[in-house]
C-alpha cells in the first residue's frame, strides 16, 4: 500500500505558548506548501490561552480552533475531529519540526497493520544544563528502542484518523500520560506501533527545576491511573524498564524509613533501622548509575554525572505524585461505588 495518495492533517495543541508558537508554525509551513508532502492543513487548537498565542496563530495561513482549557487530550480531540486528512500528525507547540519530519514517518503507514508511528527529539535549548540532562536521557532511551514499540508519545506522532475515530480519541481525564493510554488501546485493536528515530522535532525542554519537578509529580499521579486501568504495563515498556517504574515507590519507602533511622540502641554505633534506612537511599542512588554511565560515555562530557542527582531527586517527586494518585484513584472508586 502506498502513502502517496493519503492526505495528512497536522494538529498542534497549545496553551500560553507565545514564546515558542511562531517558530513551531513557521517550521511546518514549508511542509504545508509542498504539494508532495501530503500535508493539506495545519490546525492550532488554543487550549484556553491568555497570552498572544491566538494572535500569532491567526497571523499565519492555518486553521485556528478555540478550545475550552480542558487539557492537551481534549485539545487534540478537538483538532482531529475537525481535520480533513486521512492521517493526523500531532506535534507540540513547543517544538520545531525538521523539514523531513513528516516524510520519514509516512512510509511506515504503507503497512495497513501499522496504526501509528512516532519520531524523536532535537534539543532546542542546548545552553541549559537541565534541558540537556532531560534531552540526553530521552536520546539514550530512544537509541535503545526498536522499530516496533508498545506505545507512542504525542510530541511527534502520526496516526490513522480512522483509528482515532474508532477509539473516540484520547481519554480527556488524563492530563498526563494520555499518549500512552491511547497507545495501549490502539494495540488492543491489533495494530502495530512503530518508532523512527530519524524523524525529529526540536523541543524546548524545561529549564526551571521547580516546573520540571512539578511536572514529574503530575506524571507520577497519572501513571497510577494508567497502570491500574491498563494492567500488564507496569513492569516496563519500550521506553522505560522495571527499574525505572520501581524508583518512585522506593523513594517513598526511603522517606518512610527516615523516622526509624533515628532509632538507636544504647552502646551500638549503628542500629538495624539506621542501616536499613541508609541502604534504601543508597539503593535508590545506585539505580541511577547505569543511565548516568551511558550518558557520560556517549557524550564524553563529565557534567552528565549530574544526571544521577537529577533522577534521584525526580524519583521522590514522582513518588509523591504516585502516592497522591493512589489515594485519589481509590477515593473516586469509593465515591462511585
What is the secondary structure topology, with strand pairs?
Elements: E1 8-14, H1 18-33, E2 39-46, H2 53-58, E3 63-66, H3 72-82, E4 87-91, E5 95-97, H4 101-105, E6 114-123, H5 129-143, E7 148-149, E8 156-160, H6 161-166, H7 178-188, E9 192-203, H8 209-229, H9 242-261, H10 272-286, H11 289-299, H12 306-336
Parallel strand pairs: 1-2, 1-4, 2-3, 6-9
Antiparallel strand pairs: 4-8, 5-9, 6-8, 7-9
Please name the defining characteristics of this protein.
337 residues, Spore Coat Polysaccharide Biosynthesis Protein SpsA, Chain A, 2 domains, nine-stranded mixed sheet, globular
Query: What is the tally of helical segments?
Result: 12
Enter the CATH topology name of the largest domain. Answer: Spore Coat Polysaccharide Biosynthesis Protein SpsA, Chain A
Q: Which descriptor suits the 3D outline?
A: globular
Give the strand tally.
9
- Largest β-sheet summary: 9 strands, mixed
The domain tally reads 2
Gyration radius, in Å = 22 Å
Termini distance? 48 Å
Helix content: 40-55%
Write the CATH architecture name of the largest domain. Alpha-Beta Complex
SSE ordering: EHEHEHEEHEHEEHHEHHHHH
CATH class of the largest domain: Alpha Beta
